[in-house]
């Protein structure tokens, strides 16, 4: 430290201990600054002892008032910068926010939204079966007989799901079966297989048209008249497959009397019928009646095996007659290894495949094994499975609203939009909030349902169904699952019901489909995300911020103009934190990192106070500047500007950077700031040091548990670093000693030291942070007056009327801090 720097330093800041020695990370050494003994609690000296008379007393009193004002201002700087809306006594839960952000990022880990491309897999040809997965090419089913060839193929390839026999017996007994399931789960194939089997030996066994599809618009009543022999009636012993068309909003499904009438007509004609319906509130009465049954999911793993073998046998024939195998056996072994390949599994990104997906997946594997598909084509095809599912979910959802009733020239009736939009709103909410509680996802889905309904028909107030939710249907229609997990409530974790997509590829696929192909939906989604930004629950607001960042990557111009920039300049810290997290998520993509860094740099230099605050939060994540030095430069610019008004938020994000591998560089910069001639730099360093002692690891660490720091989530970061990074202990002790020996920061620093000491033991007496304190305390109290100060603090803690420190723990702390050879007397040893 230069003499000039010492001369310009304010009087209450002591020289950094060690006499300017090189910061090599070794233990404390050298002399302490003279201010240490003077400022130590219980010390006999005083800066004001030297004058006499009234003028001296007035001058001393004025200096004391100035020190008190400086100390009060310093306390303000160490308060939570996010607690503006919560009040001084209720700080925000940074640990919950960090966990929620980490969970939201895991939804898109390895899934860049720009990687989704459906062009490879619109359809696939497998043997004599052509599979189309493109919703644009699938129109309404036409009525008519099912061709013999399709029935033969069905007999040869259909794999019975669990519970199939039960369904067959129910159909044979009642003649009518209402089969419920989510679209794409194999319910139609199961229905055809049931009808083919029950009519095979019946009255219509010799009829080439014994299984027929019924046009969806005919409905149950019209089918009953046909079966009874009315106009267009068919022969006895026929099996009918009916998939009722999605009802227009407000249209009622068939009731029990309609079904009884159809069942009676079927029995008279010796025929059978299966109605295939989607699970949901509208179909629940049908499925709960005497004819209703849930369709079990198709065994797609076995389906992949069968289809794969079929494709390979087409090229290489069956195994040799002696059972030795041949080329086919080798291909099957390679196929098994290829299916288990982590890269292939990650590319598919679905926990379970649906029948059409299973057949396509088998085709892709076979094509690669037979040399017709390269590795990249295979992976591209696998990645497209989730993209096609997302496309099918959103294609033409509101088509029913735009069309007038059949044969009616009147304006379309648009009531019931909420019921129509709720399934897609739930899928979008799950893509954004996956891993949150079911109640949070469901509530968000209802908010979005309202926004979509208003956007669709702005002149009408949409109805809001109150008792039509069906959690099981929500999960089935969205390929989702629920699980018991931890939910953050008021700073504590409690058990809750969490909800996830059944596949890591679906969240990114849904957002990519939504943002790229449905531009009119952007406006209501943006309004909805802004509502989520105001949600006081971090599990909602931070997950939504991560999703907003992903959407901004898809179209940065739109995301920045509609989401990031307006919220970054908002008056509330919660919205600004949302914008910062969204920017950081965009910075995680190499394609947008340069743009984000330019935005953050401009805000840190030329922005409004709100924009500088947001920039500081984005910088703390560590990806919004070119290097650690650039990050610290920007945070210093923000922290010292306007007499340090934003030192609180700047210091908090400097602390966050200390969890990064480059923490040594951060500590070096803090040491430079303490030696700076400008008081604003010194305050920024001192506030950061104290915040480092008061911040738990969970509040700032982005890593999952399992890392050295992650396993100490409830430790103060200062002692956690001392325990896990021993090479930093000397620097940490030097900096904290400076805060303890600086007049304006002394009181807050001593409160922080007391907090650290109390963290050594849990309430039940078990060790807690002793390992870190054992590393830090000897370096912090290496000299005599430091030990006297620790002795004074321990005695004060023992005499605390509200939380007296047990004598045994006080002794243990003293022994941790002071080696036996340095203890002066039994009186010190026993703390009498």
Automatic annotation (TrEMBL):
Signal peptide region: none
Q: Which residues form a coiled coil?
A: none
Composition bias of kind Acidic residues appears in 83-92
Q: Where is the composition biased (Gly residues)?
A: 42-54
Q: Residues annotated as region Disordered? A: 1-111, 229-253
Q: Which InterPro entries does the UniProt entry name for this protein?
A: ARM-type_fold (IPR016024)
Composition bias of kind Basic and acidic residues appears in 1-24, 62-79
This chain belongs to the protein called Uncharacterized protein
Source organism of the structure? Streptomyces violaceoruber
């Amino acid at each position: 430290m230069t003499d000039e720097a010492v001369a310009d330093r304010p009087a209450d800041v002591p020289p950094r201990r060690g006499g300017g020695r090189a910061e090599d990370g070794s233990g404390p050494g050298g002399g302490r600054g003279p201010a240490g003994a003077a400022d130590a609690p219980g010390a006999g000296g005083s800066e004001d002892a030297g004058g006499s008379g009234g003028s001296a007393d007035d001058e001393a009193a004025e200096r004391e008032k100035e020190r008190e004002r400086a100390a009060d201002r310093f306390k303000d700087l160490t308060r939570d910068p996010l607690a503006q809306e919560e009040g001084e006594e209720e700080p925000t839960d940074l640990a919950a926010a960090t966990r929620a952000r980490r969970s939201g990022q895991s939804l898109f880990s390895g899934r860049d939204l720009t990687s989704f491309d459906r062009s490879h897999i619109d359809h696939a040809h497998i043997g004599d079966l052509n599979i189309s997965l493109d919703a644009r090419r699938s129109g309404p089913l036409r009525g008519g007989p099912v061709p013999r060839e399709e029935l033969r193929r069905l007999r040869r390839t259909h794999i019975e799901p669990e519970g199939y026999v039960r369904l067959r017996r129910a159909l044979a007994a009642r003649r009518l079966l209402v089969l419920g399931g989510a679209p794409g789960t194999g319910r139609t194939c199961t229905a055809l297989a049931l009808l083919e089997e029950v009519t095979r030996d019946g009255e219509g066994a010799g009829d080439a048209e014994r299984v027929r599809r019924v046009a969806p618009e005919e409905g149950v009543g019209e089918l009953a008249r046909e079966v009874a022999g009315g106009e267009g009636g068919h022969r006895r012993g026929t099996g009918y497959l009916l998939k009722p068309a999605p009802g227009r909003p407000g249209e009622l499904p068939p009731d029990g009397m309609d079904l009884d009438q159809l069942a009676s007509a079927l029995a008279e004609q010796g025929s059978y019928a299966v109605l295939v319906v989607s699970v949901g509130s509208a179909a629940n009465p049908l499925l709960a009646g005497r004819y209703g049954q849930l369709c079990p999911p198709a065994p797609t793993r076995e389906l992949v095996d069968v289809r794969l073998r079929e494709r390979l046998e087409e090229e290489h024939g069956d195994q040799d007659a002696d059972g030795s195998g041949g080329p086919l056996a080798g291909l099957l072994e390679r196929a098994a290894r290829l299916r288990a390949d982590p890269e292939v599994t990650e590319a598919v990104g679905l926990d379970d495949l649906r029948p059409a997906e299973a057949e396509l997946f088998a085709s892709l594997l076979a094509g690669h094994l037979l040399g017709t598909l390269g590795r990249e084509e295979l992976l591209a095809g696998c990645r497209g499975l989730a993209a096609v599912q997302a496309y099918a979910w959103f294609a033409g959802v509101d088509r029913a609203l735009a069309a007038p009733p059949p044969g009616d020239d009147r304006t379309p009736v648009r009531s019931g939009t909420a019921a129509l939009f709720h399934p897609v709103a739930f899928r979008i909410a799950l893509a954004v909030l996956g891993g949150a509680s079911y109640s949070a996802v469901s509530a968000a889905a209802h908010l979005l349902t309202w926004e979509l309904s208003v956007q669709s028909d702005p002149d009408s107030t949409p109805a809001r169904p109150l008792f039509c939710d069906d959690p099981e249907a929500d999960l089935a229609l969205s390929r989702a699952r629920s699980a018991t997990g931890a939910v953050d409530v008021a700073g504590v974790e409690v058990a809750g019901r969490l909800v996830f997509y059944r596949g890591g590829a679906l969240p990114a696929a849904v957002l990519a489909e939504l943002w790229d192909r449905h531009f009119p939906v952007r406006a209501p989604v943006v309004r909805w995300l802004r509502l989520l930004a105001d949600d006081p629950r971090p599990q909602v607001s931070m997950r939504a911020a991560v999703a907003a960042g992903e959407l901004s990557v898809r179209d940065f111009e739109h995301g920045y103009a509609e989401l990031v920039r307006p919220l970054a300049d908002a008056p509330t810290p919660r919205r600004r934190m949302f914008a910062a997290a969204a920017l950081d998520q965009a910075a995680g993509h190499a394609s947008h990192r340069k743009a984000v860094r330019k935005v953050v740099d401009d805000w840190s230099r030329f922005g409004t106070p709100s924009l500088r605050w947001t920039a500081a939060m984005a910088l703390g994540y560590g990806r919004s500047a070119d290097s650690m030095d650039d990050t610290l430069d920007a945070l210093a610019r923000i922290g010292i500007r306007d007499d340090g008004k934003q030192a609180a938020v700047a210091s908090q994000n400097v602390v966050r950077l200390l969890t990064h591998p480059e923490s040594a560089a951060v500590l070096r910069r803090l040491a430079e700031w303490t030696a700076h001639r400008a008081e604003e730099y010194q305050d920024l360093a001192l506030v950061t040091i104290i915040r480092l002692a008061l911040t738990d690891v969970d509040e700032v660490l982005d890593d999952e548990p399992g890392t050295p720091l992650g396993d100490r989530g409830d430790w103060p970061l200062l002692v956690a670093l001392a325990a896990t990074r021993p090479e930093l202990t000397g620097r940490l002790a030097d900096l904290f000693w400076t805060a303890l020996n600086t007049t304006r920061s002394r009181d807050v620093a001593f409160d922080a030291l007391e907090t650290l000491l109390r963290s050594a033991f849990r309430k039940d007496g078990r060790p807690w942070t002793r390992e870190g304190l054992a590393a830090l305390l000897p370096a912090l109290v290496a000299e005599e007056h430091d030990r006297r100060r620790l002795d004074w603090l321990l005695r004060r803690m023992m005499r605390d009327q509200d939380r007296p420190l047990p004598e045994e723990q006080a002794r243990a702390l003293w022994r941790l801090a002071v080696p036996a050879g340095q203890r002066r007397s039994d009186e010190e040893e026993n703390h009498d």
